[in-house]
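Reading a protein record of the kind used here takes little practice once its layout is understood. The reader may check this reading against the record printed directly beneath this paragraph.
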Amino acid sequence: MNEKAALARLEERPRDLRRGAVLVRENDPQAELFILQRGMAMSYVLLDDGSRQILRFLYAGDMLAVSALVYRDSPETVVALTDCTVCSFDRSAMTGLVTDHPRLSALIMVMNQMEKVALTDRLAALGRTSAKARIAALLLEMRNRLRMRDRAMGNSFTLGLTQEEIGDATGLTAVHVNRMLRQLEEDGLIRREMGRVTLLNEVQLAQAANYIDRFEGLDLRWLPPAR
């Protein structure tokens, strides 16, 4: 079985989720992983004071709940941000993938390392950068992730997030998020209309955000050959 066929087997059980549906709940037993086939999701944890910290936004093509390979109980909640299609598979399916297709298993490790570094960047930003920089970095990250699926996409995209969700990802209140978005508009860096955001000056926006695109500049020459 070639790599494409092996990946296709992971997507044999699709199911649709409505926006707001909980796919995985924090601290619940979890033995399944998922491929996000369509739509957008997020993962978050609840803090002791009841507030929510969004950890990652998840896009079509991402593998969800990978922590099931290591932990019996889920360390995070995964929720559909839009109407989604997800494909579930048991973690035992990874045994054959690792054994028969080492390059695919290596690529899964690569993707998880990229997510880890991007999350580290965001955690550092929470304590070291301004509110405007955090919002700017989030907008750039969203555009870059969406562009991975659609290389023809320009600098305009549907935001698809509430100001509360942006705040929970950046450690800001919804009121502060609204203020920073307006400031980015006044600075001529973005434009908002009809639920879409257009990046008007990507260079200055990246400078304002101290942003590094962790999905560029990869060195994957070490990957084993396909089987």
